[in-house]
Amino acid sequence: MYQKEIKQSNENIVFHSIYFTENSFSIPDLTKITNMTFPTIKRVINEFLEKDIIKEWTLSTGGVGRRAVRYKYNPDFCYSIGVSIDEEKIKFIMINTVGKISQSKTVETTNEDFITFFEKNLKNFIVEIDPKHLSKVIGVGISIPGIYNKESHFLEFNNIDRYESSIIKELEKKIGLPIWVENEANMSILAEAIIGKHKVLTDFTVISINNKITCSTFHKFGNKSEDYFFKASRVHHMIVDYENKKKVGDCISFKVLKNKIMKAFPDIKTLDEFFSNKKYRESETGKKILNEYLNYMGIILKNLLFTYNPKKLIICGELSQYGNYLLDDILNIVYEKNHIFYRGRETISFSNFKGSSSIIGAALFPIVDNLM
């Protein structure tokens, strides 16, 4: 391995060690964690201080003689932009390195040429960022409901429009920032694996329920930061009702649920009103809509449990905003009496990101790829 590669690898290992702790640390602490020598850690620490990645915190207490200097990770040493795209809107956020959102914006899509529209609004969002933060932005991550095929050099922002992947390089030149693109389920996986409540798990599966249904699996196979992979699958088109020839997307997309509820209850303006008010949610019509929806969801969740046998199956996407109202009923449907799944009801949970997992994962992508 070349000296430069060794140096970079050492920095990545140290960064990975300090990123996942909120506590202060010393050079001796890091030598124990990483098994690196004191001079190597000292060199990396000095470079991190120059880059503002860490700050001197306090002098450690106790012991005899000179006390070791302690340091603390600075989550605001750089920022990243995240974008999520669907057929109705584009969302933009800017986060620090631990996922704290400092700026956000949503624009509704129009009939304008999509690439032109997207480029214009991305530039507008960048212009609106405070210059002192913009100077620290390291990249843009984009979450798409379609796929990004690097081997065949194409990407789909949806299931209709396909573009040559070269448009990403062109866009990078126009905005002056590197761009990462991935399927929204993979981006949700990234958020859950890096800063989510289940980040300690070595394998899990997510199903992202937005206007499109996507699924991804995560597996970590070593102790190094790069020792993991994730892979998305397009469950949106899987048949879930053979008799009526209904696909998963026809039955459990967020758009389907929203349209049924808004049509049945024309006096409400948002799903929040439906779920928070028992008058609607527990009415005969409300129960009928939810029962049909959750029964279809139960079918696909059972299939995912049988297929992947994950330690955790996390429901992400816009539907996760209403997980508190739906989880018990879903568990009762999936884990019926005498079920034969290897794991129990604790396997299924809703994401804590409340519909933002894919865009937060997108924003994390440049940080993870650059620094970990």
From TrEMBL:
Domain of life per record: Bacteria
Entry similarity comment: Belongs to the ROK (NagC/XylR) family.
Q: What is the lineage of its organism?
A: Bacteria, Fusobacteriati, Fusobacteriota, Fusobacteriia, Fusobacteriales
Name the coiled-coil region(s).
none
What PANTHER family does the record point to? BIFUNCTIONAL UDP-N-ACETYLGLUCOSAMINE 2-EPIMERASE_N-ACETYLMANNOSAMINE KINASE (PTHR18964:SF149), ROK (REPRESSOR, ORF, KINASE) FAMILY (PTHR18964)
Q: What is this protein called?
A: Xylose repressor
Name the InterPro entries on file: ATPase_NBD, ROK, WH-like_DNA-bd_sf, WH_DNA-bd_sf
Q: Which Pfam families match?
A: ROK
